[in-house]
Write a structure and sequence with these properties.
- By secondary structure, this protein is mostly helical.
- It has a domain of about 140 residues: Serine Threonine Protein Phosphatase 5, Tetratricopeptide repeat.
- Helix content is about 75%, strand content about 0%.
- α6 packs antiparallel against α7.
- The chain starts with 11 loop residues before the first helix and ends with a helix.
Length: about 300
């Protein structure tokens, strides 16, 4: 069975929770105007960011640092915009400049770590999260992201220790984020083949957020590994009710149905997976699923010929 446990990373957490440093009420604008104040330019950049006008925001922050080259907040906020645009190299440059101007700019450490993580430089990311935690030891975001980076380095026990800290430090009332942390810790437990612990974490995740399709998907994988095929089918089905475009869930449910002898249902699932992979433009997965479907159809035809004979 294909175990594609982590179908979506939660790296956006650090960006979503970073606070844009608005020091005054900004007025809406549609074009760069000639201003002498870096503060005014900065405020317009913040307003453009809030309105998802990212290219315009970059222009405003660029103008702000031209007026005042030591304006650290402009570098920090432009870093956030580059993160949203997926320009991680430039995000790192801006965060590095913000840190040079202010060693206590903790959000810059967090977001530089996030950019490094997106580029696959997990050691650099861990270093930044650790530097942040030296100064702010109760920030659950740094523990959470450091856990994700440790997972990618296959340092699973370190990952669990970080997720434990994130769960301990997270503020009350953060149910959706809490669900994500339980899901990630459960995934790590699953890789370590600690099935009871993994399932317990996935249970917590779905109890906190009934729309968390990743937790249902991962729990389905854990159930299958445990030998609970009916539980696996149930959870793949629940994941698909939340996200009908989840092609891997169709593939895995189809394979289980094949193993249980429900061949027509299995073929139906694989055909749906083909449709979804085609919509996604995922040619490799499409071809792999097509090969599976052909083999399954050939087996079914062969068994029908034997039955008739």
């Amino acid at each position: 069975m294909s175990h594609l446990y982590r179908t979506l990373f939660s790296f956006g957490l650090a960006v979503a929770l970073s606070v844009l440093a608005i020091t005054g009420k900004a007025q809406a604008a549609t074009a760069i105007v000639t201003l002498t104040s870096a503060q005014e330019l900065f405020d317009f950049g913040v307003e453009a960011t809030i309105n998802n006008q990212y290219e315009q925001a970059i222009d405003y922050f660029e103008q702000a640092v031209k007026v005042d080259t030591d304006y650290g907040a402009a570098y920090s906020n432009r870093c956030l915009v580059y993160l949203k645009l997926g320009n991680y190299a430039k995000a790192i440059q801006d965060c590095t400049q913000a840190i040079k101007l202010n060693r206590d700019n903790l959000e810059a450490y967090l977001n530089r770590g996030l950019a490094s993580q997106r580029l696959g430089n997990y050691q650099a990311a861990i270093s930044d999260y650790s530097m942040m935690l030296e100064r702010q030891p109760d920030d659950f975001r740094a523990y959470y992201n450091r856990g994700l980076a440790s997972f990618e380095l296959k340092e699973y026990h370190e990952a669990i220790a970080n997720f434990d800290q994130a769960l301990d430090k997270i503020p009350e009332g953060s149910k959706l984020i809490l669900a994500d942390i339980y899901n990630e810790r459960g995934l790590t437990q699953l890789v370590l083949e600690k099935l009871p612990e993994a399932i317990a974490d996935f249970n917590q995740a779905v109890n906190l957020n009934a729309s968390n399709y990743r937790a249902f998907y991962n729990r389905a994988c854990a159930c299958h590994q445990k030998g609970d095929t009916q539980g696996a089918i149930r959870d793949f089905t629940l994941a698909l009710q939340i996200d009908p475009k989840h092609a891997e869930a169709y593939v895995n449910r189809g394979l289980i149905r094949h193993q249980l002898g429900y061949q027509q249902a299995a073929i139906s699932d694989l055909k749906m997976a083909l449709k979804r992979f085609d919509e996604q433009g995922n040619e490799i997965a499409y071809q792999q699923t097509w090969d599976l479907l052909k083999r399954l159809q050939q087996l079914l035809e062969s068994s029908n010929e034997i039955a008739i004979a």
